[in-house]
Design a protein that fits this description.
The protein is an alpha+beta fold. Helix content is about 40%, strand content about 20%. The structure holds histidyl-adenosine monophosphate. Histidyl-adenosine monophosphate binds next to strand 6, strand 10, strand 11 and helix 11.
Length: about 425
């Protein structure tokens, strides 16, 4: 058997404790923000039937065609997929458990998503999203509220330079007409199309507009626009979203070419992007998906949502010089001698009873080596107990970031430390 060191799967990252502290801080902030808008948490499985994503995201999309981790369950042959996104699962769960019966729902989830993309900075094969879904809401007020929510979060996180791109995709009928015109137009320019575009011409011509191929840009720029096909209802909806954003002084750019990579969207779509993360600058994206609930088997109901990439937002916060989160420990308890060990165990529990975060030194060693560990722990205080102290019923309380040490009776420790931490 080979004993070479095993590595994580490419594009799937370990999040080590220093970094995980930032994640926890981020997740706490986000939870408070979601609470303040009345969104409730939902947790779905990581594995779903492959058919769910094919039906929801669309057969002719990059995600379904080439990025899904799909396999047959070796026990019963079921076709399964590690979720590449959360909207389809969230809608599936809401329908399966009748959450939408007469009651719209504001839901959010947080967790790992999986896409077999080429890994690079900001693009991973396992990445993490916070997803927000409002199910059963038709009006432009909720589209705008979700955008306002995002703007508030960027303020709370202290993030700068995130721009909002906005577009409307109209409704199904308008998109059908536009699609027919696009096919017709690109057929007339078939000699310019590359292999990818030719393959998509009849299945998903809208995606051709996303192509980065320089040789096709001129033809793409002159392609028929969707705006000409939009019906009054969709235009009125889009106007109302913009009006609310203006009222709240949220800056945005209209991007007619913003089409998104998932097929379930209609009407409002949006992306928040930054130029400070290189090629993977979209930190948050979403829009309306009024057809999806019916497509997954429910009674037709409108909906709107978005998801943000946690890795990208944290990277941006580091670019902005985010301060390290506060220390996660209050006391490191140093002890030497048999009786002192027994007493230290008791005192550690008493300090925890008083709400303090305590590491009790384990593994013996000299006072000196234990004090080194106490310094490295980043705790603001060490409590030191030796057998002499046990005889006297006293411990030494030593501030680790400067200040005089003091002798205290065991019973005084919890109160004194809490008082010092508050002061
Ligand atoms: P999405 O645009 O595919 O939309 O992903 C949303 C966000 O997830 C992106 O803006 C990005 O920040 C992050 N993200 C996507 N792929 C990766 C990756 N490979 N590595 C790192 N971060 C990534 C959705 O997933 C929709 N479900 C959003 C939505 C919710 N629409 C309506 N409701």
């Amino acid at each position: 058997m080979s004993n070479e060191t095993l590595q994580a799967v490419r594009g799937m990252n370990d999040i080590l404790p220093d970094e995980a502290e930032r994640w926890l801080w981020f997740e706490d902030t986000v939870r408070g923000w979601l609470d303040s808008y009345g969104y409730r948490n939902i947790r779905m499985p990581l594995l779903e039937p492959t058919a769910l994503f094919k039906r929801a995201i669309g057969e002719v999309t990059d995600i379904v065609e080439k990025e899904m981790y799909s396999f047959a369950d070796s026990l019963n042959g079921d076709q399964l997929t590690l979720r590449p996104e959360g909207t389809a699962s969230c809608v599936r769960a809401a329908l399966q458990h009748n959450l939408l019966y007469n009651a719209p729902q504001r839901l959010y989830y947080s967790g790992a998503m999986f896409r077999h993309e080429r890994p690079q900075k900001g693009r991973y094969r396992q990445f993490h999203q916070i997803g927000v879904e409002a199910l059963g809401f038709a009006g432009p007020d909720i589209d705008a509220e979700q955008i306002l929510m995002c703007a508030r979060l960027w303020r709370q996180l202290g993030l700068r330079d995130i721009t909002l791109q906005l577009n409307t995709l109209g409704d199904a009928a308008a998109r059908q007409r536009h699609r027919a015109k696009l096919i017709n137009y690109f057929e007339q320019h078939s000699s310019v199309l590359d292999a990818d575009a030719t393959r998509r011409l009849h299945s998903n011509p809208l995606r051709i507009l996303d192509s980065k191929n320089p040789a096709m840009q001129q033809v793409i720029a002159a392609a028929p626009g969707l705006m000409d096909e939009l019906e009054q209802d969709a235009l009125t909806h889009f106007d109302a979203v913009q009006q609310i954003l203006r009222r709240h002084e949220i800056a945005f750019e209209i991007s007619p070419r913003l089409v998104r990579g998932l097929d379930y969207y209609n009407r409002t779509v949006f992306e928040w992007t930054t130029t400070r993360l290189g090629a993977q600058g979209t930190v948050c994206a979403g829009g309306r998906y009024d057809g999806l609930i019916e497509q997954i088997g429910g009674q037709s109901a409108p909906a709107c949502g978005f998801a943000m990439g946690i890795e990208r937002l944290l990277a941006l916060m580091q670019e902005d010089g985010m301060a390290s989160p506060a220390a996660t420990l209050d006391v490191y308890l140093v002890h030497q001698g048999e009786q002192a060990g027994v007493m230290a165990g008791k005192i550690a529990e008493q300090l925890r009873d008083a709400g303090l975060r305590v590491v009790l030194h384990c593994g013996g060693g000299s006072f000196k080596s234990q004090m080194k560990k106490a310094d490295a722990s980043r705790a603001p205080y060490a409590v030191i107990i030796g057998d002499n102290e046990v005889q006297a019923g006293m411990a030494t309380l030593k501030p680790l970031h400067g200040g005089e040490q003091v002798q205290l009776a065991f019973g005084e420790l919890p109160g004194k430390i809490n008082q010092l931490l508050k002061g």
